[in-house]
Structures are given as C-alpha cells and as structure tokens.
Specification:
Helix 2 runs antiparallel to helix 3 and helix 5 packs antiparallel against helix 6. The chain is mainly alpha-helical. It is 65% helix and 10% strand. The chain folds into 2 domains: 3-210, Alpha-lytic protease prodomain-like (Up-down Bundle); 217-300, Alpha-Beta Plaits (2-Layer Sandwich), CATH 3.30.70.1350. A 3-stranded mixed sheet has the order 1-2-3. The chain is built from 9 helices and 3 strands, in the order αααααααββαβα.
C-alpha cells in the first residue's frame, strides 16, 4: 500500500478505535453516575462506531482500481459511506433529544465529578481527532474521511455541552440551586439539535454528489475562462462538471475550425484537457468533444463568439475533390 492511501486508512482506523474506547467510557460513567447527557453522548458514540466502520469499508472499496463492471472506478463508495454516517447521526440526534426531554420532565439526577472528568476527556480527544481527520481528508478530498471528521465535530459539540451541563448541575448541587440541576438534560437537548443540523448538511451534500449535482459555479466559470484562453477554440457549445467521489469530471463540447486535420483536433483537445487538470488538482477526468466551425457560423452570429452554453447548428462538411463529376 502506497503512502497516499495508507494515511487516510490509518486516520479511519484511529477514528474507529477511538470511538470504541470513548463509547465504553461514556456509557459506563454515565450509567454509573446517572448522567443523561453523558449516556446520550455515549449512545451517539456507539453510532459513531458503526459510522467509522462504514467509513473504513467505503474507503477500502473506493481505493479499488477501475474494473470491467466499474469503468469509472469506485469513488462514489465513499459518498455512500458519508450518507450512512449522516443517517446514523440523525438517528442519534432523535434518540438524544427524546431522552433529554424525558429527563427534563423527571426529577433531576445527582451529578458527579467523575462524569465531568469523562466529558472533558472526550472533548479534548474528539477535538484532536477532528483536526487530524479533517486535515488528512481535505488533503486527498476524501468524502468518507471528511464525513468522519464532521462526525467528530458533532462529538466536540456534544462533549462541550456535556461539560457545561454537568458543571452547571454540580454548581446547582453544591449551592442548592435546584434549577441548575437540570443543566445536564438541557445540554443533551441542545446537543441533539446541533447533531441533527450537521446530519442534514452532510446528507444533502452526499445526495447532491450521488445525483451528479453540478460543481460550484465559481469553479465552472474559472474552467470556462481557461478554455476561452485557447486560441483554437472558436466557441464553447457546452461545458459541464460533476463530482465523482474523490475527483471531478469535466465534459466539454467545443467548436474549432473545420479545416483542421484529425491529428490537429486531437492535439488541441489533449492540450485543453491537461491544462484543466494542471490548473485544478481535483479534476481527474476531462472529456472533450470537438465540433467543426466555419466562417459562415461567425457571420450568422453577427461576428461575435458566444461565451458559453447554447450550441448553434454547424454547417456539414462539404466534400471537395472526390465525388465530383468530370
């Protein structure tokens, strides 16, 4: 395994093992000392174990080379893994919210200092995991690893809320302020809302990619300007771009002089393709289709070259020489 693939897989395995350890710690301390927010956070972490496992599996599939049945590779496996993580986060958010509301209705539990320590350990651990995983994920545009990092960020929010909620409950216990003893379940409810918001954003992005949503307008405009800089291009008939997991595919239909040879057209298309790939590291595939352009096309357009989009019909190639009657 080369280093480019080893680094994200190591990050994914670190996330999985960390989530297992944190889940055991949170659930044990939460149940032992009756901390609703810590139990909810522990259940959330149990979902993270499944999510991390999905991320590891999807990344292993995504790293497979293209084959006969998957000629475009397996890059979208990571996007599917990210969608699974988003679904697990949503389920965890509903669970946490429900139990937080129930805990607010019932008499408050007795907070304990060990619950606060466990929440603080989780906060520091998850913050480090988020920074590390996001850095690795962004370096290779790994959707699965970025989704895992976002999951760690949700845990940071959850652990921060747990720290604040348990601390307020302890203050209420030590000073006889009954209202503050509900800080634990209130924090759990806030966490559930934040996690649900994150799950929605992650799920929407994953579905956009799976549905071949177009790349960002700014990037499409930058690619358009780069293509226009090629002097041989007389007109851009169509330009499209979409994400395909870890990379982006660009589809171009360009008009060039109809008098060019096949070799000259091939060289132009190849030059434009690699100019785009060099300028945009996330672009891995550029499909270029060339259409013939003739001077009368320019006259029909009033002598101007359209900047993009709509394709005007081009004149058919007129036979010269061969086929004429003597």
């Amino acid at each position: 395994m080369n280093s480019s693939k080893a680094s994200p897989m190591i990050a994914a395995w670190i996330s999985l093992i960390s989530n297992v350890l944190l889940t055991v710690m949170k659930l044990a301390v939460g149940w032992l000392f009756g901390s609703q927010v810590l139990i909810a956070d522990g259940v959330h972490n149990a979902g993270d174990v499944i999510a991390s496992g999905a991320a590891v599996s999807s990344m292993q599939i995504a790293n497979r080379p293209a084959d006969e049945n998957h000629p475009y590779g397996h890059g979208k496996a990571e996007v599917l893994g990210a969608a699974v993580i988003a679904l697990i986060l949503a389920i965890a958010a509903v669970y946490m919210g429900y139990h937080a509301v129930v805990a607010m209705i019932e008499p408050p539990g007795t907070p304990h200092i060990l619950a606060l320590i466990a929440a603080a350990i989780s906060l520091i651990w998850k913050m480090w995991l988020y920074i590390y995983t996001m850095r690795v994920g962004r370096s290779i545009n790994s959707k699965g690893l970025i989704a895992t990092a976002q999951d760690h960020l949700a845990d940071v929010y959850a652990s921060l809320a747990a720290v604040i909620g348990i601390f307020l409950a302890l203050i209420g216990k030590w000073n006889g302020i009954h209202l503050l003893t509900y800080g634990d379940p209130v924090a759990g409810l806030i966490v559930s809302i934040l996690v649900m918001k994150l799950a929605y954003e992650m799920g929407k992005e994953s579905l956009d990619i799976l549905m071949d949503h177009s790349i960002k307008p700014e990037m499409l405009q930058a690619i358009t300007e780069l293509v226009h800089a090629a002097p041989e291009v007389r007109r851009i008939d169509k330009i499209r771009g979409r994400e395909h997991g870890q990379y982006i595919t660009v589809d171009l239909r360009l008009s060039v002089s109809g008098s060019l040879t096949i070799q000259e057209g091939h060289d132009i298309g190849r030059s434009i393709k690699y100019a785009i790939i060099d300028a945009f590291p996330l672009v891995d595939e550029v499909l270029v289709h060339l259409n013939p352009w003739y001077p009368e096309d320019s006259e029909a357009e009033g002598g101007s070259l359209p900047s993009s989009g709509r394709r005007k019909p081009v004149q058919p190639v007129k036979p010269t020489g061969a086929g004429k009657q003597p």
